[in-house]
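Sharing a chain and its predicted structure for anyone who wants a worked example. Both blocks are below, sequence first, tokens second.
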Amino acid sequence: MKLLHTLLFTFTLIATGLYANTPPNAKVVIERMIIAYGGEQNIQKLNAYEQVWKIETKTTDTNGTDERMVMMPNSLTTKLIYPDKTEVRMLHNNYGTKKFDNKIIQAKGPMLDAMKLQLMRLYHPLVLQSKLSAISTSEDATHYILTLTQGTVSASYFVSKENYLVEKVIGKLRMGGQDMEFVTLYEDYRPIHGVMVPHKEVKYAGDVNTAIMHLQKMRFIAAPKIKH
């Protein structure tokens, strides 16, 4: 009987993820994320959408607007509008361009990697599920951490153990022989047509708080389903 109790206790530890030295199971975490975000059918809406964000700039006194169009998992267009300038960044299938002052330049090196991270940080649970083989896992006291590496860049998604929503993404790239981090905090989650969407983003470059973003508008666009 004592042996039976010992076996049952061991199996319980394994089943609940409390067994020492056992990393979080990425597949299980993502499955719970899918439920938390509104279910697979609703999450498919995040495959293509347009958003308008108000930019509260923290490094200058000039605020602006971020008009964003996302087509998962390969395309991101961002139009940054300030009183004195406008910049358009386009990424499609790992080819990036920047347009400003009526000039268009091709993004290469760290500039291109930064654009890739901007798209990766927006990956929803179904995209992560489709890239499961490239994800490693760890955890801290309050988060499961899913780290996705794609080429020269990586993104770590901090998933709340309480509600299985992404609360932070840390993107990493190499610049001048050193690692550089871009951090985005996601707050004020609210449902839009059945899918959970953060209405506030707090951005950091390294340790510097560069901007706080507030969602103003969002429109879903018909798009193909993500295969997984």
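Comments welcome. The longest strand covers residues 178-192.
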